[in-house]
Amino acid sequence: MITAGIDYGAADTRCVVMKDEVILGKGLAQTCFVPEKSTELSLASAIRDAGISGSEIERIGATGSGRFLGGSADVVLSDVESLALAAHLFFPCARTVFDIGDERSVAVRIDRDGGVQDFVVNRECAAEAGVYMKSIGRLIENESVGTGSMGPGTNERIPLNGQCLIFAEREIPELIRGGVRPADILRTAHEALATRIASMVHRIGVMEDVVMTGAIVSDPYFMEFLRSRIEVEKIHVPDLPAFAAAAGAAAAAARDDRSGNREEGVEARDFVVLTWPGSIAAWQKSGESGPPAPTRWRDPGIDLEGASFVTVGVDIGSACTKACMVADGRISAYVTMCAADGEKGAARVFRSLLDSAGVSEDRVDYCVCTGCGRVRFPFADRTITETACHARGANFIYGPSVRTVLDVGGQEVKAIRCDGRGKVADFLVNDKCAAGTGAALEVFAGLLGVPLADFGRRSLQVEKDPAALPDTCVVHAWSRAREMMAKGRGVEDVIAAFCRSCADRLHSLLEKAGVEPGLGVTGGVAKNRGVVERLTPLLGFEPMTTSWDPQIAGAAGAALFGYALCVKRKKPRQMGES
Fold it and tell me: Is the Cβ–Cβ distance between 7 and 64 less than 8 Å?
């Protein structure tokens, strides 16, 4: 019997033609928004490769996350079932099989007959799937052109984010400009993905023999990292690892005891074509309009020369640096500037603040630095965590009745509970994921070609809010957004759906923290009406409002801490004095 198996994946559709469980031909087509077209192209390619006519195919099996959408099939089975059958077909002694697809990863434990005993599927996260390595490889190739930095690695440990693709993509250009070799970045990325896959596989228990499928098995470095982490002597790989699931579907079609299952269920409705151009595409579009203009403010009514103490707080974030000047406990000036180039960018903001205030560095009695880059700021007399600074700053800009602070920064979201003096009582931090952060909004705005400053406003220009995009991964959310636009939805609908997903994500963290009335929102996202106004109905009450720029809360808190330290000492101090 000649059968065909079609594996309808989120990025590619693969097909094999088999006779008596021997592969005769294979075909590949990029998955598109017209499912039947992808099926037709991959099947036609496999038929040509096999050297037969289409009429010779007696039965067709379909698998993959889009298996219900690609046209009629005699047998429809899950990718878990098809992988189990393929592993048993190629390696009868196989007991564990796992596959790393572009969209997701799957691990299956099977019995002696190829039946499924247990399985685990990763959550909707790009850092646990093949798209992680694809995107990093593409970005490294682009950033390395003309730098002369390609070549063997040094085995140096690289501080690359292995938990979120968006953050990793933001870090790579800076690493390469800093002289880190691409080979070392790739090795670190391989190690990170292998560690996450091994953690997933261990949830069902690893039994030998182990089989692995998927396109990534062609990378020997990744395979060795993974083998060492799951602690097996050998990982078996079939001849056509990327076509294993399709082969399992074809094998299932040849068995008389299997029939088609057309109950689509949730998985069919959730299927989406994976389309991720990479964060670099967002940066390129954002670069066309340039970064947001710096913000400068000064209170001319405050006499800095006559003040007892003048202190400065600097908040170095992942994308923006803020500096605030306090004179005897009152905010006298502040500056916010997109300056993500570390120490040099922070120094520019510090100098800009002094210029705006019209004072020299000698007039500053104390400087406190906070934020993710605080340890690299040379002008600081002291560093304090951003959690403490945001609580103290929110207490000032929102008033002493604030009891919960939601700080939404470029890379991190924190829910902070505090008392009436702005002292931290407890806090929660999101996992190392871009979803819901300022980085996510920046990337989405760039990919849509919408200025970030207009993002919130345009999200409110819809008659009715669409369903929220996935709130667990920016990469998957963008794929949903592309699907919405392919079906005729406007840009405003997409922005509204994304802002709603951000609000859902933030509300989830607040619920875990135990939010109550008296909520102040800080950070750049606090100025996004599209997110904040969608958060309100989820909370059941209005967040607090302020006339101050909520983005300066961390810097203001740092400056206020500096003022408190000066008052405690009862005398000014010189810069750098211990």
Answer: yes
